[in-house]
Amino acid sequence: MSSSPTPPSRRRLVGVSTKMYFSFAQTQAYIASVLEHLSRSQDSPPLLDLSQIDIFIVPDHISLVSAIAQLKSRHATPMIPKILPGAQDAFHEDCGAYTGFTSPAVLAEVGCRIVELGHAERRRLLGETDADVARRAAAVVRNGMVPLVCIGERTRGTGRRKSQTSVGAGVDREGSDVEGEAEMIAAAVAECKPQVEAVLAAIADMELNGNNNEDADADVILAYEPVWAIGAPAPAPASHVVGVARGIRELECVRRRGATRTRIVYGGSAGPGLFAKLLNEEGGKYEDKDNGGPGGGSIDGLFLGRFAHDPAQFVRTIREVAEA
Ligand SMILES: O=C[C@H](O)COP(=O)(O)O
Predict the structure, then answer these.
(1) What is the pTM of this model?
(2) Is 153 among the catalytic positions?
(3) Mapping DSSP to helix (H, G, I), strand (E, B) and coil, where does residue 260 land?
(4) DSSP string, 101-128
């Protein structure tokens, strides 16, 4: 009797953006402190196994080269995991008369590994469109880096959820109207759908045109960040996050990609304690093994902002994602 092979799992990941919160010196001090905390957490048993997860730090553009050097210098240190450096944006052209833009080719040249695209703040302040984000994602892949594409609905939705007024009520499902919640999830997935489709279509087109040497779908990270949960006192409700992530996984453009090639992280006032709540919400109800899931998960990790700007809290969250 032959048993079907176990599908490969998606690697978990956890990262932080410093947005524009830090000075150059503060970014250097932050990274040094994160490395120090990670090193200390490996000093005594029980040792933390970080080999199965990806960790990334996304500083501002000016601090990036220095951050890359800092991270590289510690990679030789035993027990310290590799931390992938990321950028907060890249243009869709590699070079030319594009004053003030950031070249993806130069980012790759200096050792950048992940490029965040289409953050809600850029969509709002700079008018970046799905088409802009899609072209940039293709350029990031073309240059051998991984796009971290921010998607998310702008408003809390019009479902009839009873606890709609309080964002902070997020993780507490008491009093929620399940039908209204389902409507809000469906509305959020519908708003995310064109954002995801545009990006995956642009990457698929680029791959079809032979610009990618890989013989497989490119790795893509979707950062699901409901706009109303960014910069808020608390994250979106776990039930909402998991519901939307499942809806995104069911989109045809996601389903037809390689099983492990699309990872989804949650962002928006995320911090310590959240990942366990998300996994608890998944509760094994969603068997995503066919799609490379780690045995019941639609969410692969977290993308943090403010609540990880304290290095100890970031490392605490890394530990939680690794051990959950
Ligand atoms: O880039 C990260 C996200 O926008 C979340 O930021 P936040 O945790 O400060 O809300």
Answers:
(1) 0.89
(2) no
(3) coil
(4) ---HHHHHHHT--EEEE--HHHHHHH--
